[in-house]
Description:
globular; alpha/beta
Amino acid sequence: MQPETSIFLVGPMGSGKSAVGKRLARDLGREFIDSDQLIEMRSGVDIPFIFEREGEAGFRERECRVIDEVTQRPGIVLATGGGSAQNPDSRARLHGRGLVVYLHTGVDQQLKRTGGGRGRPLLKNGNPREILSRLMAEREPQFREIAHFVVDTDNRKVASVVHEIRQYLAARSPA
C-alpha cells in the first residue's frame, strides 16, 4: 500500500473505530482523525447537543461535509461515526478515496462497549438492544458495500485488531 493511501475505519458505534484508529495511526506513523471529535471541535458543542438542537439530519449534514473534507487528505487514519455510511455521497467518497476497513461487531458487544447507551443520542429514547439491532440491520449493508476489508472486533483487544489490519496492509504492499 502506498504511504499516501488513507485508511478509513467504518462500523457501528462500539465497534472500536476510535481506539483501533489511534493505535493504528500511531503504529504507522500517521495522523489520526476522529470525525465525531472534529465535528465537536468545530462546533464548540458535543454531539448530543447538536442532535438536540439540529436533530439527526443536522448532525448528518455536518458529518457529510467533514467526511468530504478529510477524505481528501493523504495518508491519514480516519475513524468515522457509526452513521457516516448512510449518506450515498459519503459512501462514494470513503470507498473511492482510500482503503475502507469495516470493523464489524455484534449487538451484545456494542451494548458492553457503549455502556448501554449513555451519551449516545440515538440510544436515549428506547430499548438500546432493539435500537442497535435495527441500526445494524439498516447500516451493515452500507458498511459492507464500501469495505475493502472486514475485521471482526468481538471479544478482541485493540492490539489484535490492529495487528490483523497491518497484516492485510502488508499483504497489499508491493514487495
